[in-house]
Amino acid sequence: MTAPVFVVDAVPGAGTFVLEGPEGRHAVSVKRLQGGEDLVLADGRGRWADCVVLTAEGKDRLTVQVSGVYEDPEEEPRITVVQALPKGDRGEVAVETMTETGVDAVVPWAASRCITQWKGDRGLKALAKWRSTAREAGKQSRRTRFPEVSDLMTTKQVAALLAGADFAAVLHEDRDHPSGALATAELPEKGSIVLIVGPEGGVSPQELAAFEEAGAKPYRLGRSVLRTSTAGTAATALVLGRTGRWS
Questions:
Q1: What are 198-235's pLDDT values in tens digits?
Q2: What's the order of all strands across the beta sheet hosting 47-57?
Q3: Burial 95-109 (b: 16+ CB within 10 A, else e)
Q4: What is the DSSP string of the chain?
Q5: Chief location of this protein (predicted)?
Q6: Which of 99, 139, 143, 231 has the most other CB atoms within 10 Å of its CB?
Q7: This prediction's pTM
Q8: For 80-97, how does the pLDDT look when each residue is reduced to its tens digit (9 = 90+)?
């Protein structure tokens, strides 16, 4: 089993390091790490260190020996999911499972048919929850590079994002759509892939037209229609397998 991951602002160099604060408390009081056990310190941006516990003190202080420092390159192709805002806490569920699966970036999207609206302080709190969920899920799945969660985007902003993608797809519920299945689409080996997940009410004709003009064609995942909170995870897994990132 791989060593548990704890997040630090900056990964320390060789020598000893004291892990304190919330991460130290989690290591000492929740994980109950003891001398001689392994752990990883990561900044969530690809840089990480192999460590061995020297001592655990009190409830939130862990002294470790750093044995090696490394940096993981960004994965290719880079996978971004544009996620329309789901109802309730389904957005956090989507971010959590996509992070565990391996998505590289998540873009919250204010689609026209979204029931949920992010406005004012409520929107800022919701965005903070998505980012916190990505961080915690990244730790739990023992990633060293966590997904970026962007600010909320409008349809116009999403269309601009699509213009720079090497491949872009709108996940569509029509099983007979002429664009066909994502499982047979021609995918790039490098560059960027953007997958768009619509809201419960679907992507509007106007949004679909704007995305197609920006280069994103509609593709179906399979015969069944997935919820907006699970479609991004399924599509990410499919792309990871087809591009060799899960090889």
A1: 998 899 999 999 999 999 999 999 877 788 999 999 99
A2: 5-7, 38-42, 47-57, 61-71, 15-19
A3: bbbbbbbbbbbbbbb
A4: -PPPEEE-SS---SEEEEE-HHHHHIIIIIS---TT-EEEEE-SBSEEEEEEEEEEETTTEEEEEEEEEEEPPPPSSEEEEEEE--STTHHHHHHHHHHHHT-SEEEEE--TT-S----HHHHHHHHHHHHHHHHHHHHHTT-SBPPEEPPPB-HHHHHHHHHT-SEEEEE-S-TT-TT-BGGGS---SSSEEEEEE--TT---HHHHHHHHHTTPEEEB--SSPPPHHHHHHHHHHHHHHHTTTT-
A5: cytoplasm
A6: 99
A7: 0.93
A8: 999 999 998 999 999 999
Amino acid letter, 35: G
pLDDT (0 to 100) of residue 180: 86
Give which of 128, 123, 115, 125 is closest to 88, Cα–Cα: 115
Rounded Cα–Cα distance for residues 116 and 84 (Å): 9
- The Cα 30–Cα 26 span in angstroms is 5
